[in-house]
Amino acid sequence: MAFIYQSRYYDPSDQTPPGNCFQACVATIFGLALSEVPDEADSWKPGMSASDSWRAYWPRFCKWLQARAVGYVEIRAETFVDHDSSLYVPCIASGPSPRDPSILHAVVIQYKRIDRRTVGPDWLHDPHPAQTWLADKQIETVGYFCSKPPKLVPVVEGTRK
After folding, report:
1. pTM
2. Among 40, 51, 56, 30, which residue's Cα sits nearest to residue 8?
3. Neighbouring residues of 65: CB distance < 8 A, sequence distance ≥ 6
């Protein structure tokens, strides 16, 4: 896995685009250059709140994923299910930024088995050059990429043989 670093960082001014840690995490997981992943800054306008910027970006990002037959599932960290299929799979963990806990930061992790009964995060890549991960290593959400099956044709009742 080649680690891709963000090229833009959080600035509290609403006159500068948001940081691109999420874009760098996606590029890292997919093995792409930063420029090959949609940039939230392209959906941002001066004066836009962080949540409005994200809402404007999200449909473009989903369309990009759809072109690759990939989906993205994000879950709250406390709902993580200890199942072998979810272990050792790189994913995006989001939580409070150590530089400003009022904003979110994204990093690449994978869950690993620590012992027979315990699963915990294996911290793989922080796209910020400070390498300070998440504030108190507090994971709020975990996002997994998954392949999307071909479009299924619904079966009409009584036609299945």
Report:
1. 0.89
2. 40
3. 71, 72, 145
